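Usage

Read records sequentially. Each one opens with the input sequence:
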Amino acid sequence: MSKIVPRTERPRIPREITILLIAAFIIAVGFGLIAPILPQYAVSFDVGAAAASVIVSIFAFARLIFAPVAGALTARLGEPRVYVTGVSLVALSTLLCAVVQDYTQLLIARGLGGFGSTMFTISAMALIARLAPEGSRGRISGLYAGAFLLGNVTGPVIGTLLAPFGMRLPFVIYGVALVIAALVVYFTLARKPVLNKLDGAGEVLPVAPIPVLTTREALRSPTFRAAMASGFSYGWLAFGIRTSMIPLFALAVFGEGTGQQVAGISLAIFAVGNGIALTFSGKLTDAVGRKIPVIVGMGILLSSIVLMGYFTSLPAFIVFSILAGFGGGILGPAQQAAVADVIGSGRNGGKALAGFQMATDLGAIIGPLIAGFMADNLSYQVALSASGAVCLIGVAAWLLTPSTIKPVAKEDPEAPATP
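and closes with the structure output:
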């Protein structure tokens, strides 16, 4: 468990992290702006539903395969430069989506965005892990997740207002907003000397070189291995099943029209539950440690999704959607703070975070594929129950993990190898 810092003694949030929080909100607003219309935009190029779903999947697939490269670039070039490059690539991708003329061009443009997304995601997490004061890592992780959540809720609202102007305009607006975000981070962070640690007053001091923690070194920590397992489970349930299987299940249960409305309500209510948990979960994990919030949050998330398959009334859908979001909101900040604890202050954890991100993305990709196959050949109840059973590995891994978290010591390259 990390050292508990009294409220009055907690250092302020560094200005660099505040900038990342603002940028995260801008990015999330834009993502929320285009996410609801993206499948419809793909269908407008005379393709079917399967091809339209590939447009969504290519983004996650690109994130997965490029994560090791993004981690290596973060270690070599530093977090701010990789962050700005990643946001710039997503901006370029988004602007290209606004002018593409066929499905193939749209597919390529979205794949490019996936490469950029993993760059800014890993570099942002690495910078937060390195600069966040020890006693506030959970709180900062919660604020970062909250910025994305608020943006994802705000984006669709703006998108509704822009609907009469066509499907290309949101891509233009998002692309321009990303350019602005990239410029802000570039002029405030990327042009500065490398930042390494904080002084007693919470001010950032320039120190170089920055030690790099690799994925192989991080895997020596049982906490990091548990975070990989729970990250895989979280990606499977919160990103994969929630966004793909639950809407289809709602359609199968409630039929056309009503099913689509229930699916939309379910996704929105998930965000409400998530937001409620994020109001306290970051501070909670700083107070009680990472293990208990991860186990409790994962337990609530997976049990809610499993039970949703067996209680199919509209009130039950709403209740379990809220609970699933609530569980994810408790789990997320604790999990990210645990990874930051393993990395430790003043170190570049880009490579280690790439491994953690790959585990999450892998769950988000294969979860819907396996669950979809089960739903087609068996039933949705079996698919959701099997998903919950698979994701018990995240709970089991943390149950076997010590509560005390220590940063992983760097390996001495000159030390003799252990047999």
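Summary fields computed downstream for this record:
- The chain has two domains: 14-196, 213-405.
- The chain is about 75% helix and 0% strand.
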